[in-house]
Automatic annotation (TrEMBL):
GO molecular function terms noted in the UniProt entry: 4 iron, 4 sulfur cluster binding; catalytic activity
Gene3D superfamilies for the chain: tm_1862 like domain
Name this polypeptide is given: Coproporphyrinogen III oxidase
Segments forming domain Radical SAM core: 33-271
GO biological process: porphyrin-containing compound biosynthetic process
PANTHER family given in the database record: COPROPORPHYRINIGEN III OXIDASE (PTHR13932), RADICAL S-ADENOSYL METHIONINE DOMAIN-CONTAINING PROTEIN 1, MITOCHONDRIAL (PTHR13932:SF5)
Biological classification of the source: Bacteria, Pseudomonadati, Campylobacterota, Epsilonproteobacteria, Campylobacterales
GO CC terms in record: cytoplasm
SMART domains for this protein: Elp3
Source species of the chain: Campylobacter curvus (strain 525.92)
Pfam families documented for this protein: Radical_SAM
Length: 406
């Protein structure tokens, strides 16, 4: 039914927005009243001490810049925390992405985390999360961060295979990675989550199943799993030809990983690319942003939204700011519905007309005939193959509904 699989979700650039100034934003933050009390703070730390062979993110290899960057983040925390709009918020998620935020030393982390707790209204049920690699997260750092409120780690394991770890430029051996991950799981009282990459060159089905078995043995709280993408600027993009890629191999490895994780009934889909140990990880950063919650962006390359303002920090001294009209904000929330395998018709109908919904139903019937989903009285539920094609399906849905948001 589809010629090409879209591997990663993105909400795309705004269809429409109006340029705004920093003064416009600050005036809003001083006088505005939040529509929703819950909020998110996203911090971006664009540094790594090693560069993964698959990575093309906005990051730089660490070169003695952490002291200056810490002072910059502390200044941003102090600046935003003084605005009335921010003071009215209760933050249910604080998320540090990168880069590798745990390249920050303990002395940096202590200052930053204390400032966050002192200057923002952090909910007692806040999900306080850090992306990290294994080698950047020693037990001393785990204990410090936990004492200052961090309760979730997203750890970039990528694979336990020795051949795969070498290819992806991971630091630990297979056995050392397993041992260190177990130590973190034993020490840390919060959620231990992982990232896994599958379908790297020459990966076997047994290797992807072994990754799943190890994660289950350690009882990780959730795992993201992504098919390798050859991104421009990455080492792999200059080393391997993409001719190795085969859609059926991609599907076979994807389904093998999910099937292995689902054995025993302890794990379930949280979204297309994330499996959750039942009753554990909530992934509040993404789930809150999907329903349109405010996301305060702090740090170079951090993006977010406060009220009707879309914000992207290009540099420490340069922000792109735009006013997002209601239809643009609704477009993002509608598209976000299609990151989950179980989608209610009532949620779709909040954003589209009867005519568009009828067109969507015709598309869903085609998907059902291919075995990608089941149409139920109150919604659709994607099959395993449907989840594999999920982002492609989401892209087609966005095209069908596009006129609703123009």
């Amino acid at each position: 039914m589809f010629e090409k699989r879209i591997k990663g979700h993105h909400s795309g650039h705004p269809n429409k927005s109006e340029f705004a100034t920093k003064e416009d934003l600050y005036e809003f933050l001083e006088d505005g009243v939040p529509e929703q009390k819950e909020g998110v703070i996203y911090f971006h730390v664009p540094f790594c001490d090693t560069i993964c062979s698959f990575c093309s993110m906005n990051r730089s290899k660490l070169d003695g810049e952490l002291d200056d960057y810490t002072q910059y983040l502390l200044g941003e925390i102090d600046k935003y925390s003084k605005f009335s709009y921010i003071q009215q918020k209760s933050f249910e998620s604080v998320y540090f992405g990168g880069g590798t935020p745990t390249t920050l030393k303990e002395r940096h982390l202590e200052k930053i985390l204390k400032a966050i707790n002192e200057k923002f209204n952090i909910s007692k049920t806040c999900e306080f999360s850090f992306e990290t690699t294994l080698h950047n997260l020693n037990i001393s750092k785990v204990r410090l961060m936990q004492s200052l409120g961090v309760n979730r780690f997203s750890i970039g394991v990528q694979t336990f295979s020795e051949a795969g770890r070498k290819l992806l430029n991971r630091t630990h051996s297979k056995e050392a990675a397993i041992e260190h991950l177990k130590k973190i799981k034993d020490e840390f009282k919060g959620f231990v989550c992982t990232d896994i990459i599958y379908n790297y060159p020459n990966e076997t089905e047994e290797e992807v199943r072994e990754d799943a078995r190890i994660l289950k043995d350690i009882a990780v709280d959730s795992t993201s799993f992504y098919s390798l993408q050859f991104l421009d600027g990455s080492v792999l993009s200059n080393t391997f030809s993409q001719d190795y890629y085969n859609i059926e191999t991609d599907r076979k490895l994807h389904n093998a990983f999910v099937e292995e994780m689902f054995k025993g009934g302890d794990y379930e889909f949280l979204e297309y690319t994330k499996l959750n140990r039942k009753g554990r990880d909530e992934y509040k950063y993404i789930r809150l942003s999907h329903v349109g919650a405010d996301v305060l962006p702090i740090g170079v390359s951090a993006g977010g939204q406060l009220g009707e303002f879309g914000i992207f920090n290009m540099r420490a001294d340069l922000q792109m700011i735009g006013i997002l009209p209601p239809e643009e904000r609704n477009r993002k929330k509608f598209n976000a519905l299609f990151q989950y395998h179980d989608i209610k018709f009532s949620d779709m109908k909040r954003y589209v007309s009867d005519e568009t919904f009828a067109n969507l139903m015709e598309f869903f019937k085609k998907c059902e005939s291919e075995g990608y989903m089941s149409i139920k009285p109150d919604g659709i539920e994607l099959s395993l193959d449907g989840v594999f094609w999920g982002n492609t399906i989401a892209d087609e849905v966005a095209k069908i509904a596009k006129k609703e948001f123009e």
